[in-house]
Amino acid sequence: MTTALPPALRPWATQLALFPEDLARHLGPHVARLSAALGTLRPRGEAEGGEPQGYDGLSRRGSFERLLVSEWLWALEAPEELVRRAAFGELSFLKPAFRQPQGARRTVVLLDVGPDQLGLPRIAHLALLVVLARRAEAVGAAFTWGALQTDPARATHAGLSGTSLLAWLEARCSTPASAQHLATWREALDLSRAPEDVWLVGSSRLGRLEGAEGMSRVEVSEPMEPGAHRLTVDVRPSARVPRSVVLELPPPDDCLRLLRNPFNSNRAPSAWLPRTADRRIVKFSFSGEGRRVLLFSSNGGVEAMAVPHSPRATLPKPRRVQVPPGQRVVAAGWRSRGGLLVLARHLGTYVMHGQVHTPKGFRKARYHATDELGRPDTVAGALPLSLLSWVDPQGQEHLWLKDGKDRLLSLPPPASEGTSALVVEEEQVSAMAEVNSRPVCVLRPQGEGRATISRIKVLGEEPARRVPLNARQGEAYFGYSPSGAHPDAGLLAVRDKELDWRLFLDTGVSVLSVPERYRVMGVVQPPAPSPPGLLALAPDQRTFHFFSRESSRVLAVASGPVVQAAASHGQPAFGWLTQAGEFVLWDLMEQAVLYRSVPEATS
Prior knowledge:
By secondary structure, the chain is mainly beta. The strands form nine sheets. Strands 24-20-17-16-15-21-22-23-25 form a nine-stranded mixed sheet, with no helix packed on it.
């Protein structure tokens, strides 16, 4: 995030904050010069008329029919003073207000992403988007934009964001802009109605397209001179005198960053930390709501760390719990209202480190298993489990954990005396998470026959509610998606056959296939316009691939063989742990490392 812009660039601080500080400083001078050339977007004033809508404050000008009543006192008490005040413009009049047509309050920008504007001209396009977004915001106008060669139904953007800019950068194509493209956008956005603030951004050829009449244009060109590293921008407003601006471009490496991913910083992340041997990470998991990552150390410690929102974010100090000697960590979780919970085994009982919320306040909790088969840690040497916490409307905290046998165990409310018994609530549970502030789990098919399918169970409800899923095997992963997800489970992927997976969305089910020997590790949603898809580890145990209904691609490559990987269902990020003990959090939006921890001996 940009924090130290020069005073001259502060009007665009909100828009420039999308970029790393060094790139924002490169774009800043271009933004200032283009803003001066474009001018301000003036809302319709009194002289332009419109439907009368009462009064809006006071004015020093107007007809005497709108003169304030208090001013007429001068006519009775001091007529000469009334004449003097009128001559010097000191009288006060009611200022009329007018209802403005909605079309006058919108800025529309259509950018050419064809061969005429590939490469360096798109840097000018990027600066123009910043200018026009701020220009519309200053007068309360809507800001709508898109790539001219794309489908308006899928690629119409409102406002400026990192996701929309990445989608625009990926929209480049080899098809020149045509009158048909323009006609499609005119119809989709209803641009035939006047008045509008519509801008075409591209080469001079756009002005010759049928339907471009009356639209403002910005023409961007590269000078045909050896060694020239600049752009010429001609601003041609529909009702103003054209102006020309020359933009000196940043160094080549920074130009490349602006064209490929302008949100990726060239600085190493601040969260790049070595670890001593006794604090080596042996496992990690994401919290119930997906916004924290729990790190389990070899010395029995547990840390809860907020997942950074950006590679440049300052990481807050993690919460840590170190169990006393003689105790062994069984499970850990994070409650959404704050607080790290760690369940540890001490002899034959289980102790909760961190008090449990009840309607009467927080209480300490201890548990016991009714028999040896009912213990969650029956497998010797097993890694710690994940704990899911949810507080109901009455203020009672409910806790669940999924053990190594895919059983869902419920941890009852703390008993007033003694210990509470662990209860096996469900068998054959493949995944659990908190989705839309509700705890849910996925149940594998039970029984035999083709009619047996997986189900979603909403936890904490009486009577229990189960939603059927048309998937036969039941292995499941929850993922993050800003929109278009399943109403009960969010973004959810469930295995149907050996190589086939089903993605459950609000619009239906999408079936995806994964090649043999690829291991599915989660379900993710990269930046738009990419659809959601599967995160899979290649046979080399190092390369992460993304499979969707479009062509597959590589997301990231680990430094060594991966022993564990998982995707967050609360943020666009996933993590992995290597055999060497290196732990990495990867940001899907910026395609960069969010956090990296390595054992001290190999750092």
